[in-house]
Each structure stands twice: as structure tokens, then as C-alpha cells.
Amino acid sequence: MVVTERWSCSENVPDLSCLLAAVPVEAGFPSPADDYVERPLDLNELMVKRPEATFFVRVKGDSMEGADLRSGDILVVDRSLEARDGQVVVAVLDGEFTVKQLHYRNGRVTLLPANRKFSPIPVTPEQDFQVWGVVTYVIHAV
Amino acid sequence: MPSDDSRVCGPVYALADCNNFYASCERAFDPSLCGRPVVVLSNNDGCIVARSSEAKALGIPMGVPYHEWEPFIRRNRVCVRSSNYPLYGDMSHRVMRVLAQNVPMIEVYSVDEAFLNLSSFPSKGLTDRMRTLSNMVFRWTGIPISIGIGPTKTLAKVSNRLAKRSPDLGGVMNWLEESVPEELLGTLNVKDVWGIGSRLGRSLGSMGIHTALDLMRSDPQRMRRHFSVCVMRTVMELGGTACYPLGDSPVPRQTVVCSRTFGADVSEYAVLREAICAYTSVAAEKLRKEHLLARMVQVFLMTNPFHNDQPQYANNAVRMLPLPISHTPALIQAATDGLKEIYQGGYRYKRVGVMLAEIVPDHLVQTDLFAEENPKSKRLMQVVDGINGEWGRNTMVFAAAGIERPWKMQQRSLSRRFTTRWDELPIARV
The pTM is what? Predict the structure, then answer.
């Protein structure tokens, strides 16, 4: 399952600053199109479903490059979502934040990197482990 | 007064209170702090203003000067943080929004407390429902909360205290459950009852009223004669008769204070004056936000009492205004006038501040044609507050409050503003 939806500025995104149906009005005659004026697109609407539970986290490192998460990217993290097998999560392992793909089988958790240079991290019951939030979008400057 | 009938299915209130709020905010973004003692320092790192439960267990008291406890704190490897108000403000907002989305009505009582009106929920399963809500707040925001439920706001506060005291309750205590005996009130010191406090507590103690149970069993009319109608209402609330709906409380705001300790000692009048103007602006903004007016302006200043080798001076001045107001320029004028009176050259000042007192709600005041609070100035104040609310405090300032602010505070162990600045986001090493 693909969890992250990569978003970047160059890919088919309309100019966000323009009103979709704003038309200049001639003096004296209200334009019928005025009825169709809409608010400008707001990225929050797209990427932040639950503002109370959404946090932004900056990535440092390259272990998730294969999943399009690069160093310097900003992750949109929703803490209200229940983490499921296969999702990319921000996790706390022994007091440190990390970002990995959650692998959950037969009651065992493994954190999977997306880069061949790194090995999977099996989480042992003795370790202090907790899913902090589920990554829903990646903001990546091109 | 509610009738007997309404007592059968009368109002139900809850108090949701964040556990060790400031320390919990720090922990939410620094997991290495979990399970370790944490203290948070006041503005300018002066005093300890918040402690995690581990720090409380070590015996570190609330409100003590940090430098007195620094050796102890080092020895016990206690984590220290400067107070990070932008972070706490944002986290508070998140917690309050989750609460508001899940109950019909809430009253935000302070940065980390809200009263909830649960009257419309079925009483069956209410405790579990609140437990679910408490878990949800923790999962969504990372902030642990406790919820106390009761037939009155005062008993909701009591339940909350008891919930915090017994970890096996899972953070929720319901006074309305049959298994809860009213004798539990006997374990609560009377000064800890909402609206009582230590001064009234001492007077009550001299009458033989030491616990919340003693107070509940006292004669309401006698309490009214001896003290006030507020204490009488507290007695009734402890007995289960609701006197305070959401939005009402036995402890109205008495003062608005804004003061800071300087990072570096300040001697020049011009710098002190700027600081006083800035603090007065902040205090006035707070007044207007709560629809209050103040009549008394007190300015105070002091040198550093820990520098015994330097000449010491402390003083304060009071200005009474002809009418209660909330108009910033007029309050600034009164404050700077007071400062002029007490300022003495040749001293190195450590702390200055402004207190606004003699406070009344703004709807109780008749407009005086000759007062400075005219509709035009009220409109100006609304515009200024609106801009500062939207764009951040200090976007629009009164010129007298200065722009450079060399006296800004010292914050040595400040965490980042994780939720309000793009360049200070939490970092995950990947």
C-alpha cells in the first residue's frame, strides 16, 4: 500500500493564488459569473484533515529516499490515525524520533527503511517503542 | 435555584485539566524527556513554574527561585526548560478544540483547564465516554489530561483532583457514581476547594473547618454572614446544588499583571519607560479580551536583591483614574507618570512591571462624556487587537513601547517553537 502522496510544485498544480471564477465586473451590470466566485485553493484543506492532530516534522537523513522522503523535506503527520501495517510513520524508538515504514506481522513490529544501505530494525519487547503519528503527505521543494 | 426535580437528572459538569501541562508540552516533542524529571522556568529563567510528576516526587517545590535549586537539579539530572509560551499556547488551543468537538459546550477556564457541560449525555456510560475522550486528546495532541465529573463545577474540580491522585482510575473520576462516598471530601484540605484558597482556608480553619467535608456540612447561611455569598455558594456546590453555570465562577479576575525580569540589569530611564509601556500594552490587551476595565494602575520596580554588593532600591507608585478604562494610551500615560515618580538614577534595575486593578466588567460602567473611553478610541483598540491577534503580538505597537527592546528576557534552555515556526519544526533523523 502506498501511503505517502508526494506533492511537488511543478506537477500539474494550478496557480494557487488565482480565484477560480473571478471575472472583472462592468460598471452597472453585475456579472452572472459573480455567483460562481469561489475561495482560492487552500493547501490546508487538501493536506490537513484534522488540524488539532496534525504536526509538521522535518526529515534529516537518507534512509527513506526510496519512498520519496528526502533530507530537508517536511512531513505532514496526523496523530489521530491508527497506524496500520505498511504505513510510513513517525515513531519514537528509545527516546528518539525516526521515520520508517511500519511492518506489523504476528504481533511483531519491524521498522523498514527505504534505502538498500540501511537494514530493517526489528523492535524487541524490551525496547521503548511508540508510533507518534502517521505520515500523510511529504512537502518537497523541487 | 434548581428544583428537586432537576436534581434527579440535574446538570452534569466536568473539569478537563492537562497533567503538568508545560512539562507535557516539552515532552510531546522531545521523547527523551519521558519518564525523566522535568522542570520549566518562568520568564527569564527566574523561578520554577512547572514540574513533571517525577520532579514533584523528588520534592522540588513550585515557585522557588531556580538558582537556589540549581545544584540539586544538576545532581538529580533533572531536565530544565525555559518557558516556551508560543508552544504552550498552540498546544492548549489544540487540546481545547478536541474537547469542544466532542462535548456540547465548553468553557476554557485557563491555558490548561476547561469546564465541560455534559448534561445532555446519558449518565450511563458517561465515565467510559470521558475516558475515551481523555485517550483521544492524548493520542491526537500528546498531552495527557484528567477529567473529573460532578453535579456542580466545584465537585467536578474536586473529582479532577482525586482522579490525579489515584492513577488506577485511568485519569477519570465521576462523583455521580454510586460507589463514590461523600466522605472522600474529608481527604481534601479546605484551602484546595475551588474559590477558597489559603487565606480563607486559614479563617475557616479557626472555625474548625479543615476539610472539604467540614465545609460541605457547615451552615450555608452562617457562611454567608461570616464571609460572603461566594463561600455560601461553594458550600451548596459541595452539597450537589449547582450555583455556577458555564462562564461563571466564584473567583473573578482581580488584577492583570505584566512584569518581567531583565536579562541584563537596566539603569536608563528611557529603557525602563519603554518596558513599562510594552507591559501596559500587553495588560490592556488582556483586559479588553476579557471585556474588563481597570481603574487602578500600579507600577513597580526593583534592583537585584541577590547582588548584595550593589545599592538596593525598590518602590511602587499607584495612579487612580477618574473612571475604569481599557484604553491603552491612557493606561500608558498613567503608568509612565507613576514610573517618573519612583525612578531613581544610579541603580541597576532587575525587574519592573505593571499591575492593573480595581477591575470591573465593561458593561457595568456608564459612559462619561468627558472620559477618554469614547467610541472612537474603542474602535481603535479593536483594530489594534485584531491586527495583533491575526499577525502575532507586537505587529502593531504604540510607539512609546519601543521597537528594539534591549531588555528582552533571558531564556537559556528554550525549546523550539515546534508548531508555530517553519524553521523550528521538530526534526526526525531518518
Answer: 0.71
Contact B430 A55 (CB under 8 A): no
In a 13 Å sphere around the CA of A45, the CA atoms on its Cβ side amount to 5
- Report the amino acid identity of residue B71: P
Residue of B nearest to A63 (CA): B430
> In whole angstroms, what separates CA B411 from the centre of its chain?
21
Residues in chain B: 430
User: What Cα–Cα distance (Å) separates residue A46 from each residue in A83, A135, B136?
Assistant: 20, 14, 23
First to last CA, chain B: 61
Q: What are the tens digits of pLDDT across the range A60-89?
A: 999 999 999 999 999 999 999 999 999 999
Proportion of chain A above pLDDT 70, given as a percent? 73
Asked whether the beta carbons of residue B429 and residue A69 sit closer than 8 angstroms, the reply is no
Q: Which among A50, A51, A63 is the nearest to B430, CB-wise?
A: A63
Q: Judge contact between A23 and A34, C-beta under 8 A.
A: yes
Coil, helix or strand at residue B315: strand
**Bridge pairing between strands A108-112 and A96-105:** antiparallel
State the pLDDT at residue B77. Answer: 94
**How many Å lie between the alpha carbon of B102 and the closest alpha carbon of chain A?**
13
Kindly report, residue by residue over A99-108, the tens digit of the pLDDT: 999 999 888 9
The answer to whether the beta carbons of residues B328 and B385 sit under 8 Å apart is no
Whether the CB-CB separation of B159 and B15 falls below 8 Å is answered with: yes
- Joined together, the cell numbers standing for residue B319 give 495612579
Active site residue A100: yes
SS3 B219: coil
Measured between CA atoms, the residue of chain A closest to residue B429 is A60
